[in-house]
TrEMBL record:
Annotated source species: Halonotius terrestris
Lineage: Archaea, Methanobacteriati, Methanobacteriota, Stenosarchaea group, Halobacteria
Name of the protein this chain belongs to: Metal-dependent hydrolase
MF annotations from Gene Ontology: hydrolase activity
Keyword field: Hydrolase, Membrane, Transmembrane, Transmembrane helix
Top-level taxonomic group: Archaea
Length: 199
């Protein structure tokens, strides 16, 4: 799924703390947002493998939740929701499309790498691909209620994510066609860093 969807879901996971522990809600929201984004920082170096740990984040969630419950504070709560956001991110990538430049073609059997099993997990394609209309529908379904319940700066983040998501969905197929052309002009020293799917 697209990054705006991951980011907004990370925020949504932390939103109950607005009621349950309002003083800790900003830390939880920040953690959830960053955790929802973090795995995709590997976009250009081993995407969905280098920073995606579908089993590892789940295992880390237990002690992180325990620490937040036993010693609630901005750091422990923020860290716990960071891990929860990363767990959701990896799970969502499994429910999306494959790891390919044009995932609507359905040719890839790689959704996310499971380091614990030492193998790629196959995409379920419930959301056919990142930037699909169904991806945008999920983003909107999560983002619109958050626009009502969150205050700034988180409301601004949600609004920005929704705007980026709409633009990305509109341009998704065009960008996939453009990528090989643009990266074809990459100098030799940079070519080794260009993901194989863009070549």
């Amino acid at each position: 799924m697209m990054l705006p969807t991951h980011a907004v879901v990370g925020l949504a996971i932390a939103t109950p703390l607005l009621t349950l522990a309002p003083d800790l809600a900003p830390a939880a929201l920040t953690g959830g947002l960053l955790g929802g984004i973090f795995p995709d920082l590997d976009l250009y170096f081993g995407h969905r493998k280098t920073l995606h740990f579908p089993t590892g984040y789940v295992v880390a969630a237990l002690p992180a939740a325990g620490a937040a419950l036993l010693a609630p504070g901005p750091i422990t709560v923020g860290l716990a929701f960071f891990v929860f956001g990363a767990v959701a991110h990896c799970r969502m990538d499994r429910y999306g499309g494959g790891l390919e430049l044009k995932p609507w073609e359905g040719t890839s059997d790689r959704a996310v790498y499971d380091h614990a099993r030492g193998e790629w997990r196959e995409p379920k394609r419930w959301i056919p691909y990142d930037g699909s209309p169904r991806d945008l529908l999920l983003l909107a379904a999560v983002a619109l209620p958050l626009l009502v319940v969150l205050d700034d700066p988180f409301r601004l983040v949600v609004g920005f994510a929704l705007l980026v998501g709409v633009l990305y969905v509109g341009l998704r197929r065009w960008l996939a066609s453009l990528a090989p052309v643009v990266f074809g002009y990459a100098p030799d020293w940079l070519a080794s860093y260009v993901p194989e799917r863009y070549q």
